[in-house]
Amino acid sequence: MNSFGRLFRVSIFGESHGQLVGVILDGVPAGISISEDDLMADLARRKSGAAGTTPRKEDDIPHIRSGVFNGFTTGAPLVIQVENKNTRSRDYTELRKTPRPGHADFTAFKKFGGYEDYRGGGHFSGRLTTGLVAAGAIAKKLISPVTMETSILEVGGSEDIQAAIDKAVEEKDSIGGIIECRINGLPSGVGEPFFDSFEAVISHMVFSIPAIKGIEFGSGFAAAKMKGSEHNDSIIDTSGKTETNHAGGINGGITNGNVVVFRIVVKPTSSTHKTQRTMNFETRKIQDLQVEGRHDTCIALRVPVVLEAAAALATADLMMQSGEIKRINQPKDNIV
Amino acid sequence: MNSFGRLFRVSIFGESHGQLVGVILDGVPAGISISEDDLMADLARRKSGAAGTTPRKEDDIPHIRSGVFNGFTTGAPLVIQVENKNTRSRDYTELRKTPRPGHADFTAFKKFGGYEDYRGGGHFSGRLTTGLVAAGAIAKKLISPVTMETSILEVGGSEDIQAAIDKAVEEKDSIGGIIECRINGLPSGVGEPFFDSFEAVISHMVFSIPAIKGIEFGSGFAAAKMKGSEHNDSIIDTSGKTETNHAGGINGGITNGNVVVFRIVVKPTSSTHKTQRTMNFETRKIQDLQVEGRHDTCIALRVPVVLEAAAALATADLMMQSGEIKRINQPKDNIV
Amino acid sequence: MNSFGRLFRVSIFGESHGQLVGVILDGVPAGISISEDDLMADLARRKSGAAGTTPRKEDDIPHIRSGVFNGFTTGAPLVIQVENKNTRSRDYTELRKTPRPGHADFTAFKKFGGYEDYRGGGHFSGRLTTGLVAAGAIAKKLISPVTMETSILEVGGSEDIQAAIDKAVEEKDSIGGIIECRINGLPSGVGEPFFDSFEAVISHMVFSIPAIKGIEFGSGFAAAKMKGSEHNDSIIDTSGKTETNHAGGINGGITNGNVVVFRIVVKPTSSTHKTQRTMNFETRKIQDLQVEGRHDTCIALRVPVVLEAAAALATADLMMQSGEIKRINQPKDNIV
Amino acid sequence: MNSFGRLFRVSIFGESHGQLVGVILDGVPAGISISEDDLMADLARRKSGAAGTTPRKEDDIPHIRSGVFNGFTTGAPLVIQVENKNTRSRDYTELRKTPRPGHADFTAFKKFGGYEDYRGGGHFSGRLTTGLVAAGAIAKKLISPVTMETSILEVGGSEDIQAAIDKAVEEKDSIGGIIECRINGLPSGVGEPFFDSFEAVISHMVFSIPAIKGIEFGSGFAAAKMKGSEHNDSIIDTSGKTETNHAGGINGGITNGNVVVFRIVVKPTSSTHKTQRTMNFETRKIQDLQVEGRHDTCIALRVPVVLEAAAALATADLMMQSGEIKRINQPKDNIV
């Protein structure tokens, strides 16, 4: 389903080439100062424009259409919408017959019986993360002073990001990357036992971002080569501070007060300028396919702010569940 | 919360040194042939006994206490319990002051204010996966003919499992490992758009297993070094079969009819015989800690069947949501 | 929270004097033929205009902003919005000090700390049922050939509706009423055991409609004066048809194949032209209060179509859970 | 599904003539003092024994099997079980062919395809409310100092309860009744906007109790005959106290600080000693039916404590959502 969260719930809607994309945020505490301007910085970070990103450009002006009154959240649901403007009307009929490798064309068809909006990926498009980023900007306000920090560790197997992008553009191919997210300032005790561990809830949310194919916390896959005596983090003060942070700030699924650290892998953009092979469902023969349209050489470049948003949304919900965020932000003075 | 699933829901309970561990399964279709014997094979696979596993031995006899009548599920909730027998009563008072590195001692204390059952890890213990495995044996019946297949790829950084275990035992240390899970026979179209993608739901469930610190689907983290033209899987027949399977059987969060493949990393067992350092919360000084008790040198050896159970439970719920599993298994002949 | 439903989920948003009101519908099967015109008939039934209803008039043009493509639902969420146009900007400052009896002014203030949008009832306004009615029109399509039928049994204690309204208008007071809803054509077996009985889920949804203060199924409160031998409905054919229908079509929380019948009571509209007494929270003294604005003498007149919508939404979700409604409405012919 | 609650969740299991009945309670705050003795008083109130109740007698000894340690809740799920002892093994084969009027025999068969445990009502039996009452005793602790108070207003249409029972026993028939519940001491601000109003959530839970066919809050159905100026409750102090309480303590779905008052109707027990008519599904002819077994002449007599339990469980969940109940009850002194 297109909703996530128990007390702080985000619901997503829209299509790549439809009228709009957006979100509803339910369970937002009353009394948070919010304006559309507050969302612009993160939306700008998500935009394309740099080398290696798609030439499709959108203004991405967010409209908060409910749930805010006199500059503050009211406790009622926030609807945030971003209109699609730069959609190109063209004929997708031919494309329908030849599902693009790596894309959701075939699976969406199987899931929705051919009724799906297939234009530009429809509801499966990365365009939907626009709403997620807007929602994330609000979630970041809720969890403050907890902060999110992301960095691109590598793209195309190279730590020299610019060089890797240049090479991929030249080869007319696409590349993926690895991104690290750090959540600073989280108190200990966040995360629920067993099924709603901090790792479980973050992962659930993060895998909703298109193109993510893996996640690891702390030492992650490297832990498979470590010994217990190396991997265990010694507690060195009464706040729970640890000497090392192989656990990535989480023990038994619950935050331990250290920085939460996790990394994700973004697969290479499925759309490339290279000729590929796929099945033609009309002729029932395998054929060459040239994917037209505007695409990102390396979508990983635009993922950091989306990842922050996803992590902030999941963190906010867990912090509300553990009582770290209140239903009314702060008492209002001049009432009644 | 200690529940997971939308239509097929598992709830877990119990403590390592309490009376019992177990699960409730709600939403089980009526008419599935089930007996306690059906659960024994998987429970036996989870047991210790082999070199590298804990000397604590439990009979692990499952009792189905409701929801089955005349050998078939009734549609009402199944309660499955396993009594704890081999619990050692000893003094944990000293231990309380010195949280064990890598364990949930400190975080459980922060979460539950000192009321938590701290004996042997309490509700955080790997002992709770007994219930999960029993539930998984039933989930496997539901999803049949879909099957789960797991293999240990490496432990302690070595593909020679026996050698790695022997070395760790000799060093009185613990080691982790990497396990692969393959889900065979899944139809295309399973998984929900956006937040409940197949990857998201599997990951949510899998991170509930203690000691898991990472998960990757298909090529996973290796995709960061691939080009799009390499990573994309060409569709080669009208069933959706692909030439390669870098996507791990999932596009856009929805199964594509190929084998679903994912890998997890199990961290080294937190309990080791090595002397470690931790904070003493009474003296407020860092001190040496010798973790007593019975432990697994390599808990990864016992994880495969738990991983299958977790994956089967999540898969069953998603298959029910997409209509692949019916509420009544098959019509009963001789009724009324 | 502002969402309802397990597989077919409606989320509501908006405020009486804000920009808009509306809903998201998630879990709508793909392949349902829908246009905005399909929603107009029910929205027209909800409108004011008749004697006894508010002079506030709105065009109530619904806009489906996502989830429909080429005239059919796609399986992605539907966003339906109705813009507010006839909102009067006036000063509510004075009103804030003196909560109106019968309204949510005081409780909203207590819940949201003064940040709530108090204009015209804000998020608590009956105006939000506009979105519910639009959603209900779609739910009715899903459950077809099951149909909803409502009738006003009495208003102001009188079965002569027109006379009762005339009298109340003359007295400058407001009145309530009793409305019956019949759900025709429901198969047996709908409703879930224990907590999600058909009665429980319908009631949950129906009490979301503002001004509803009671609900009864079948003989309802009259059953308290009946004997078991009278109240029990004899089964008279193998389809489960019963001679009488004191149970209102439900046994053990599950539909029995007969008509489902229930009645609700709508309290008198809280806003009346009569002078009332309330607390002034500034002066801290009780004072007279004259409620200004446009109101319905008898809101019960406009409730039937809202009640049908609420019942259709709840019924659709339960029918999806019991497998009576499929995820894809019907196979599409002309696709790949 | 057999679960209810967002943060404080009760799951129910068991069958009338199976091994046991019981509940899981998840989300119980840590640090609540609980023993099995605390549950006995309410369980005793639910028992039969008085005139007008069934001769089936059960010890109803509750066993708390997890989630309590050293006399306090730990924050982990509580499993509470009551073994069934006084089950009579007899032949139900004949009964299967002739569904009892008023019972769930026919609907359970339709829902579960003949696999349901039909002995004594199986999972649909009032016997399951034993677990609910045990859970309710814990919920009452959580919501303290809020208290529940119930009274039987009438049975069999008579306020003289004893006389009505005697008459029904003499006539070998069964009767129903009306019960009022009052929730004292609730703060204002409890209940969620729109779909999770206080009335909606209470009703959802209350209709889970077998035999309930109606609910009304405050003036309830009588409001249909009142004028707005009569029905509205004037606020007479700054705590929100109202002069009258026609609203039953709830405005806009949110508690207003006055006593919450609601009434339910309990239908006459479906089992009576009178001969009834039903369909024989084997002969496909209508025939006489004599319902054997032990039954309550007036099950309403045993409902008050069940109603308190249901209301306490729903209230506790809503109070946790609005932040009135904390995740850790009180700090523990002597820890670490």
CATH evolutionary superfamily of chain A: Chorismate synthase AroC
Q: How big is the Rg of chain A?
A: 21 Å
Biggest pleated-sheet summary of chain A: 5 strands, antiparallel
- CATH architecture type of chain A: 4-Layer Sandwich
CATH level 1 name of chain A? Alpha Beta
What is the approximate shape of chain A?
globular
* Total strands of chain A: 15
Structural class of chain A, by secondary structure, is alpha+beta
User: Order of strands in the sheet with the most strands of chain A?
Assistant: 1-2-3-7-4
CATH fold type of chain A: Chorismate synthase, AroC fold
Molecular structure report:
The structure is a homotetramer of 336-residue chains. With 336 residues, chain A is an alpha+beta fold. Chain A has a single domain (3-321), classed as Chorismate synthase AroC (Chorismate synthase, AroC fold, 4-Layer Sandwich), CATH 3.60.150.10. Chain A has helices at 37-46, 93-97, 105-112, 129-143, 161-171, 198-206, 228-231, 303-321, and strands spanning 3-4, 9-14, 20-26, 62-66, 68-69, 72-73, 78-83, 147-155, 177-184, 212-217, 250-251, 254-255, 260-266, 275-280, 285-290. Chain A has a 5-stranded antiparallel β-sheet, with helices on one face. Chain A has a 4-stranded antiparallel β-sheet with strand order 8-9-13-10. Chain A is globular and about 65 Å long. At the A-C interface, strand 2, strand 3, strand 6, strand 7 and helix 3 of A face strand 2, strand 3, strand 6, strand 7 and helix 3 of C.
